[in-house]
Amino acid sequence: MLWLLDALLAGWLLSLMSGPLGSFIVWRRMAYFGDTLAHSALLGVTLGFLMDVQLNIAIILCAIFIAVLLANLQRQQLIPSDTLLGLMAHTTLAAGLVTLSMVDNVRIDLNSYLFGDLLAVSRQDLYSLAIGSALVLAAIIKMWRGLLAASVSEELAEVEGYNVARLRLMFMVLLAIVIAGAMKLVGVLLITALLIIPAAAARPFSRHPQQMAFIATILSMISVALGLGLSYQWDTPAGPSVVLASAIIFLISQSAFQLSKRNA
Q1: Number of domain units in the chain
Q2: Residue at 211 is within a domain
Q3: CA 202/CA 183 separation, integer angstroms
Q4: Which of 54, 134, 181, 204 has the fewest C-beta atoms under 10 angstroms from its C-beta?
């Protein structure tokens, strides 16, 4: 049962990062942006194999490159942002899949990258997640006011003296770190769901941003525990089970909120 405890701890460490970051994604309406960075992670894996670079580092660098490229393309306003994000998301995913198929000297379990394998987490993964969680949380705490101000209005944030461009870049870096940590656990196709669903579920019951980030983190942890329980009980894939549990919690929270509004 030690492997199950390791998986639970890994999921909870991921929740510590995904709760606050997912809240900012919901506030800033960046779900499609998160999807694009998540899909680019597979291309980062390919480059890591080809260049013999540590995979997490390759994923982070690739995600940051795609994020900067997207920011520059959006600034030029050649095509609508949603069209650009959809184009980049599917292009990077397809490029990663095609390139992975050409890597002959390495055996690759493609499903583990697409859908994750939370039950196969190692102690090294736990240590990496612990360090990543500490760094991400420290950065979020330090940049909280600036990120919150930029989420409300980037123009007003600049007037208040915040460097919005630097804040945006740092947020992209943090998101890239979370994606690198989450890829092995829930896979590139489900990372964004784990980021936004708990935050969306927490939003109706939150009176201020800090409370929403806290509730989102707790709901994410509950989702991990329930998902692992479902996976253990019915022998289902762990990553998708966690996301499904999160979606169920979201539906329950929405129903409870609507019921409370009717009774008010």
Answers
A1: 1
A2: no
A3: 24
A4: 54
pLDDT tens for 146-162 read: 999 998 888 889 999 99
Rounded distance between C-alpha atoms, residue 132 and residue 116, angstroms: 18
Range(s) of the domain holding residue 88: 2-189
Q: How far apart are CA 218 and CA 94, in angstroms?
A: 34
Please, is 19 exposed, middle or buried when counting C-beta atoms within 10 Å of its C-beta (0-12, 13-18, 19+)?
Answer: buried
Within 10 A of 120 (CB to CB), how many other CB atoms are there?
A: 16
145 contact partners, CB below 8 Å, separation of at least 6: none
CA dist 149 and 164 (Å) reads 9
Asked if residue 231 belongs to a domain, the reply is no
Phi–psi pair at 188, nearest 5 degrees: -70, -25
CA-to-CA distance for 61 and 219, rounded, in angstroms?
Answer: 30
CB atoms within 10 A of CB 74: 15
Can you tell me which residue has the tokens 């549990």? 245
As a dihedral over the C-alpha atoms of residue 36, residue 37, residue 38, residue 40, rounded to 10 degrees, the angle is 90
CATH of the domain at 64: 1.10.3470.10
Q: Tell me the C-alpha distance between 164 and 147, whole Å.
A: 8
CA atoms of 219 and 201, how far apart (whole Å)? 8
pTM: 0.91
CA distance 164 to 150: 7
Give domain status of residue 201, yes or no. no
Q: Which residues of 214-238 are buried (b: 16+ CB within 10 A; e: fewer)?
A: bbbbebbbbbbebbbebbeeeeebb
Q: Does any domain span residue 46? A: yes
